[in-house]
């Protein structure tokens, strides 16, 4: 019986596109995204998705060229020079549902593209920030970095400014820690743009809260406030996952280091919130 990790790796390889990517990188050493796309005739989004699924098997160098990690090299050698022949012919259900959903939940299939072309996604980032400020002001929620608070006395303009400043603080703290502590001296613009996607779950919550406040007699309003607080917790965790993925991809860090940065950011956020509430 295979060990869980080996089983997962076989599931990752159990797709012709991913097997082709590993085969190309194993043969050539490193390739740019453009080179991979010219060799694999699928859409850009599809390549981003499969690169994100490969996860710990691949990495990027300073020139954003893809190459195999040590684990990727060992796995490719273990499966043979032609991964397609060595991969089991069972259905792609070999890959656990959590592994298949991970790139979607973490947003890595989008953030891979942001990392390669941050300027191309800058308009999307601006729209996310403006939408977030507008929706939270309509909902009457006060944004403080990764948190939203009800019952604010701030004006709509102040809420919008808080949302923008909160996003920039998220980026600045994440980038400073990654640069000074983990010596990652690149990916500043990618993280600046990519961190905006971590705000999407919070914007979704603000929209749901606005609906509840606008239609208090609806089904959503009948359940009271506690289900929304539980929902906010779940969406906030989702926000943390996207931010961690953005830091990992943009700054080319390990998953554990990106999680450490997010936890530090959360701790900092909680500390400042408590200090603000001291009379």
Report what the structure shows:
By secondary structure, this protein is mainly alpha-helical. The protein has two domains: 102 residues, Arc Repressor Mutant, subunit A; 159 residues, no CATH class. The protein is 68% helix and 5% strand. The chain has a three-stranded antiparallel beta sheet with strand order 1-3-2. Strands 4-5 form a two-stranded antiparallel sheet. Helix 8 crosses helix 11 and helix 12 runs antiparallel to helix 14.
User: Distance between the terminal alpha carbons, to the nearest Å?
Assistant: 61 Å
Task: Please work out how many helical segments DSSP would assign.
Answer: 15
Oligomer: single chain
Please give the share of residues in helix: 55-70%
What is the count of distinct domains?
A: 2
Specify Rg, calculated over alpha carbons: 21 Å
Overall 3D form: elongated
Order of helices and strands: HHEHHEEHHHHHEEHHHHHH
Low-confidence stretches: 81-94
List the helices and strands and how they pair.
Layout (H helix, E strand, L loop, with lengths): L3 H10 L2 H13 L1 E2 L1 H7 L4 H11 L3 E3 L5 E3 L1 H10 L3 H4 L10 H9 L2 H9 L5 H18 L2 E3 L2 E3 L6 H25 L7 H7 L5 H15 L4 H4 L3 H26 L3 H22 L3
Antiparallel strand pairs: 1-3, 2-3, 4-5
Helix pairs in contact: 4-8, 8-11, 8-14, 9-10, 9-12, 10-15, 11-14, 12-14, 14-15
């Amino acid at each position: 019986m295979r060990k869980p990790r080996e089983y997962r790796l076989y599931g990752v390889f159990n797709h012709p596109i991913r097997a082709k990517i590993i085969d190309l990188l194993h043969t050539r050493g490193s390739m740019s995204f453009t080179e991979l796309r010219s060799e694999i005739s699928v859409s850009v989004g599809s390549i981003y998705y499969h690169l994100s699924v490969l996860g710990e098997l691949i990495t990027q160098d300073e020139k954003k060229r893809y190459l195999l990690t040590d684990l990727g090299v060992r796995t490719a050698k273990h499966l043979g020079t032609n991964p397609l022949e060595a991969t089991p012919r069972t259905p792609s259900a070999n890959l656990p549902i959590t592994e298949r959903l991970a790139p979607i939940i973490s947003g890595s299939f989008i953030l891979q593209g942001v990392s390669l072309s941050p300027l191309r996604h800058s308009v999307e980032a601006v729209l996310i920030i403006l939408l977030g400020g507008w929706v939270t002001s309509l909902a009457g929620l006060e944004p403080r970095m990764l948190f939203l608070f009800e019952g604010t006395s701030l004006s709509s303009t102040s809420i919008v400014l808080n949302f923008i400043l909160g996003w920039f603080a998220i980026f600045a703290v994440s980038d400073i820690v990654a640069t000074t502590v983990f010596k990652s001296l690149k990916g500043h613009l990618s993280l600046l743009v990519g961190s905006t996607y971590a705000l999407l779950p919070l914007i979704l919550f603000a929209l749901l809260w606005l609906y509840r406040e606008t239609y208090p007699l609806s089904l959503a309003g009948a359940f009271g406030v506690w289900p929304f607080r539980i929902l906010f917790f779940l969406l906030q965790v989702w926000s943390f996952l996207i931010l961690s993925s953005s830091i990992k991809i943009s700054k080319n860090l390990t998953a554990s280091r990106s999680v450490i940065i997010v936890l530090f950011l959360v701790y900092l956020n909680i500390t400042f919130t408590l200090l603000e509430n001291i009379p």
